[in-house]
Amino acid sequence: MQGTIRAKSEIITDVIIYIVMGLAGLITIYPFLNVLAISFNESMDTVKGGITVLPREFTLQNYITIFQYKTLLTGFQNSVLRTIIGTVVGVLSASMMAFVLSRREFQARKLFSPLFAMTMYFSGGMIPIYMLIKNLGLMSSFWVYIIPLILSVWNIFVVRSYIDGLPYALQESAKIDGANDFTIFWRVILPLCQPVLATIALFIAVQHWNSWFDTYLYNQQAAQFTTLQYELMKVLQSTQSGSNYRDASVQQNLAAVSPESIRMAITMVVTLPILVVYPFLQKYFVKGMTLGSVKS
């Protein structure tokens, strides 16, 4: 009898958990489905409101209007190239610096760690950074997207914490076998750090993919180095202000769509690449965020 009661209580508990989690999932996914529905809905009909998770009058005109911009393809190529190069360089630089700071033989690590941490809380500000970029000759160049973001102190500390959680005997064994520091880093540490490297890779990739303000500051006059997000921002501004900085045919199409429809279509265009990449990194991402959080 007691076993039956316990079984019933467990079933009731499971049902409550499933209901709560289902509601939480629905609340989480509804905004995304709503944005997707509006992006595919006819623009003038969207103004009436009442769109939920399905478009009332399906159309591709919102996306057609966006992709009529001639510089959009150039911006897409630059954003993809920037994201790939920036992510690879950022992951390698953060992991190498973290490896150095984690070495017990490095006597100055207690000095450098607070100095690095200080940069997370104090900055010179926008004007000094702009002057520095200008004096370095990085204005109107592609490398202005890569060089200033090579190192992230936060990523360094995340990777270092993960490395500190690995058995140090692995490095000692490799050194006994004749491996130098670079071999230990490349063949021992990096393979074991896949979860945390995938985690920071996702952070870096999202940062590069979503960035547009640096294009506005440094490459506004260099159309060949424009980015997708900057071009989409200009599309959105043109629908809101009615400005005409493209050819007449594009401006005529913009006049036939609402800013809300264009905004939702832009949101989907910017979000989709990250959504495609995330499932491949999800298992590493979750593992990298949890491993090392509890130490024995």
UniProtKB/TrEMBL annotation:
Q: Which residue spans traverse the membrane?
A: 12-33, 80-99, 111-130, 142-163, 184-206, 262-281
Query: InterPro entries of this UniProt entry?
Result: MetI-like (IPR000515), MetI-like_sf (IPR035906)
Q: Which PROSITE patterns match?
A: ABC_TM1
| UniProt keyword annotation of Signal present | no
Its BP terms in the Gene Ontology are: transmembrane transport
UniProt keywords, alphabetically: Cell membrane, Membrane, Transmembrane, Transmembrane helix, Transport
Name the chain's protein.
Answer: Putative aldouronate transport system permease protein
Subcellular location per UniProt equals: Cell membrane
Record lineage: Bacteria, Bacillati, Bacillota, Bacilli, Bacillales
This protein's superkingdom? Bacteria
Report membrane topology. Multi-pass membrane protein
Q: Name one Pfam family in it.
A: BPD_transp_1
Primary location class: membrane
Q: Which family does it belong to?
A: Belongs to the binding-protein-dependent transport system permease family.
Tell me where in this chain the ABC transmembrane type-1 domain is found: 76-281
